[in-house]
């Protein structure tokens, strides 16, 4: 090797190490200064629903804290799979956030094929809140609580119909868990959304409904429907004195919707921790708490490790429910 060649190699090696060092320094500065541009928050639902409203409320708090816009991007369709797959394929740089919901725990078993893995393709930052469901009936049904509904269903197998927001929806599957636990037969009547389902229950065309707290409670308060039980382990102030199904003998019954924040796998840990700190601070804001509490929300704000453990349990629970129900996508 000539002296000139050795000098070139030494100089080149030094340049490479210098570039690596500079890149590492710039990367560290980038994480420390994050965010330096707008962030998008992907939501797999249309505007004005609970997921959208919560994402916008949290996004506004992050915008105020960081001086960079957090823009909610609604990508409904495919049972939230469109938004999920967009998020999974996005650059892991902290500038694409994703809101996982209960649909993401149902889809792996419900759908024949999905192009992502909830646990592999995401770092899960925190579960913001859980919103339980509620079981109601038309006032003409001679049942004042879940125990009496069970007795009525056992005495009249297949005579009662229960509505839901669609095959494979969390409320349909909650009903299937209910029927399996107590050994009763009721006929499932699926609808394309809460509005037509509630219209038929209020009209007396369907006797029982497993639904979302926020859309159902107004009909209970107006006495057009009767509340029979809440699907969480704790009573919910928004539902008044309605007892839980767990209290009424269905031990461990705990279903409902939940809403969180995740980022693509590979996102730097410093950014993950920064998002966690600010996002969990955001949901402590009184305006967010007051609005979500009125919908029956139970706030969580857990750690990434706790959220992953929760997701694993949800995947197991809903997977069993889908298989037991024989549900197929509409």
List keywords for this structure.
330 residues; D-Maltodextrin-Binding Protein, domain 2; 3-stranded parallel β-sheet; 11 helices; 18% strand; globular; disordered N terminus
Structure description:
The chain folds into two domains: 38-131 and 256-325, 3-Layer(aba) Sandwich (D-Maltodextrin-Binding Protein, domain 2), CATH 3.40.190.150; 146-239, 3-Layer(aba) Sandwich (D-Maltodextrin-Binding Protein, domain 2), CATH 3.40.190.10. The chain is built from eleven helices and ten strands. It has helices at residues 3-33, 50-66, 81-88, 103-110, 146-155, 170-182, 194-202, 213-221, 269-282, 286-293, 304-325, and strands at residues 39-43, 70-74, 96-98, 122-137, 161-164, 187-190, 208-212, 226-230, 256-264, 298-299. Strands 4, 5, 6, 7, 8, 9 and 10 form a seven-stranded mixed beta sheet that branches. The protein has a three-stranded parallel beta sheet with strand order 2-1-3. α4 packs across α11 and α6 (170-182) packs across α11. The longest helix has 31 residues, at 3-33. Residues 1-28 have low confidence and may be disordered.
